[in-house]
Amino acid sequence: MAEATPVVGIIMGSESDMPAMEPCMAQLDAMGVPYEVKVASAHRKPAVVHEWAETAADRGIKVIVAAAGKAAHLGGVVAAFTPLPVIAVPMKTSDLGGLDSLLSMVQMPSGVPVACVAINGAKNAAILAVQMMGTNDPAMLQKVADLKAEMAS
Ligand SMILES: Nc1c(C(=O)O)ncn1[C@@H]1O[C@H](COP(=O)(O)O)[C@@H](O)[C@H]1O
Questions:
Q1: ipTM of this predicted complex?
Q2: Binding site per annotation, positions
Q3: Strand, helix or coil for residue 46
Q4: What's the pTM?
Q5: What count of other Cβ atoms lies within 10 Å of the Cβ of residue 82?
Q6: I want to staple 100 with a disulfide (CB 3.0 to 4.6 A). Which of 2, 7, 18, 96 is the partner?
Q7: Is the distance from CB of 66 to CB of 89 less than 8 angstroms?
Q8: How many C-beta atoms surround the C-beta of residue 107 within 10 A?
Q9: Residue 61 is part of which domain span?
């Protein structure tokens, strides 16, 4: 059977962000939502990030989740290159506890919004992505309703 086309694009600034982002992938797996994962830094590989972000919508991606730590510009740079909504996940850091990542991500200039979840809020980023898609996709909305029913039981 052919793999379903990914609808969530997950990008992270470093392979070192992968463990903190596992709950995002696990939540999307649990909800049956196909995703793609890319490791690329806006600082270290700007051309790769540019190309990935600019072509995301054409690949069928509906929502982007961008995770990064420290001077976490990745979400904002991705948002500059795509009309898709971007959810940023600030990574907890050893020096400043993730406040550095959070402030870098949340303080976007007017005109280029980036939604931002809590420090290491990978699971919530996944749920929020499905909620966004649910605004015009009843099957996605049902997945979130099912999750809420499960939490309440
Ligand atoms: N914030 C960014 C960006 C970016 O914003 O483009 N690229 C890498 N990083 C972050 O640097 C931290 C340390 O990365 P390394 O472990 O590779 O040195 C990671 O949390 C990564 O997301």
A1: 0.98
A2: 14, 17, 44
A3: helix
A4: 0.98
A5: 17
A6: 96
A7: yes
A8: 10
A9: 8-148
Look at residues 130, 124, 126, 129 and name the one whose alpha carbon lies nearest to residue 143: 130
Q: What is the pLDDT of residue 1?
A: 56
Please enumerate, by residue number, every residue annotated as part of a binding site for substrate.
Answer: 14, 17, 44
pLDDT exceeds 70 at position 28: yes
- CATH code of 141's domain: 3.40.50.1970
Span 53-66, pLDDT tens digits:
999 999 999 999 99
pLDDT of residue 47 exceeding 90: yes
Ligand 1 atom index nearest CA of 72 = 1
For ligand 1, atom 1: residue with the closest CA: 72
Domain for residue 2, yes or no? no
Who lines ligand 1 at CB under 6 A? 12-14, 16-17, 41-43, 68-74, 91
